[in-house]
């Protein structure tokens, strides 16, 4: 039997008095790759923020279960330590925070949660070198401040590096393909596929099918007006590209579930 990592039932969410999610249901299983697509304003990013525990979003109804636990009772840092990773659409810049020190800090924090020993600087830098070379990240970037002055592609690569170091149980990646050229896109896709092979669950939030060409999700979910209205396979992304959201949302889709 496939284990359910994240189970969302009848989720209603508001922000600043405005309803954003309206009875959303979604289950993510162990090792699955799920893509969430939808027009602007459908609630895709809101869903990711609620899972991560953003305090500005109010859950008014519904449940979120993570590995059998009530996720809504967990603080933001508890969720992160428990293996939930959020890749931001627009990663923020944090001047003065050294990337290499930050990465070692989060790696050891996750190691403690997993019951593993912390690593010293030498051991970590050796591991870091191997991973950053796989991602095409230069050594000089490690001495810079976190995301400060980075291009969109550099920020996304750095987030992939953080994901690998944190070894999450589930990663929610919001617009992971934003700002990437074709070479960077392939690197990001390869990293996602490697995580999937290690039985990590991945949720990709995206507008376009180009990342899905290299990752091939198990399921594609379409969001509209705060809920998931259709679920299907890779063909669903092709239909979206060809016909647009309006026509696909309204039409019955062969093979959808």
Would you tell me the structural class of the helices and strands? alpha/beta
Number of beta-strand segments: 12
The structural domain count equals: 1
- Assign a percent range to the helix content: 25-40%
At the fold tier of CATH, the topology name is: Rossmann fold
Helical element count? 9
Strand order of the largest sheet: 6-9-10-3-11-12
Give the DSSP E fraction (strand runs of 2 or more residues): 25-35%
Would you give an account of this structure?
The chain is an alpha/beta fold. Helix content is 38%, strand content 28%. The protein contains nine helices and twelve strands. Strands 6-9-10-3-11-12 form a six-stranded mixed β-sheet, sandwiched between helices. α5 (152-166) runs parallel beside α6 (182-197).
List keywords for this structure.
12 strands, single chain, globular, alpha/beta, 4-stranded antiparallel beta sheet, Rossmann fold, 257 residues
How would the blueprint of this fold be written?
Blueprint: E1 4-15, E2 18-29, E3 33-37, H1 44-52, E4 58-66, E5 69-70, H2 76-81, E6 84-87, E7 94-98, H3 99-113, H4 121-134, E8 145-146, H5 152-166, E9 170-174, H6 182-197, E10 201-205, H7 210-215, E11 219-224, E12 227-232, H8 234-243, H9 245-250
Parallel strand pairs: 3-10, 3-11, 6-9, 9-10
Antiparallel strand pairs: 1-2, 1-4, 4-5, 7-8, 11-12
Helix pairs in contact: 5-6
């Amino acid at each position: 039997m496939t284990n359910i990592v994240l189970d969302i039932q009848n989720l209603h969410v508001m922000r600043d008095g405005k309803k954003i999610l309206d009875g959303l249901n979604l289950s993510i299983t162990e090792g699955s790759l799920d893509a969430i697509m939808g027009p602007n304003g459908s609630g895709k990013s809101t869903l990711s923020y609620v899972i991560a525990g953003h305090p500005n979003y109010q859950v008014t109804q519904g449940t979120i279960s993570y590995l059998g636990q009530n996720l809504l009772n967990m603080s933001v840092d508890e969720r992160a330590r428990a293996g939930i990773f959020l890749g931001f659409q627009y990663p923020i810049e944090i001047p003065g925070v050294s990337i290499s020190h930050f990465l070692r800090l989060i790696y050891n924090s996750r190691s403690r949660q997993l019951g593993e020993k912390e690593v010293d600087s030498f051991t970590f830098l050796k591991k870091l070198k191997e991973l950053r070379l796989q991602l095409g990240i230069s050594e000089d970037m490690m001495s810079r401040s976190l995301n400060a002055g980075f291009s969109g592609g550099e920020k996304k690569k750095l987030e992939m590096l953080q994901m690998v170091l944190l070894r999450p149980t589930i990663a929610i990646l919001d617009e992971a393909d934003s700002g990437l050229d074709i070479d960077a896109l392939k690197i990001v896709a390869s990293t996602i596929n490697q995580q999937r092979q290690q039985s990590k669950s991945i949720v990709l939030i995206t507008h376009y099918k180009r990342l899905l060409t290299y990752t091939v999700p198990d399921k594609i979910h379409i969001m509209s007006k705060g809920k998931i209205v259709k679920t299907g396979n890779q063909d669903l992304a092709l239909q979206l590209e060809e016909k647009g959201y309006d026509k696909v949302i309204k039409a019955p889709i062969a093979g959808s579930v």
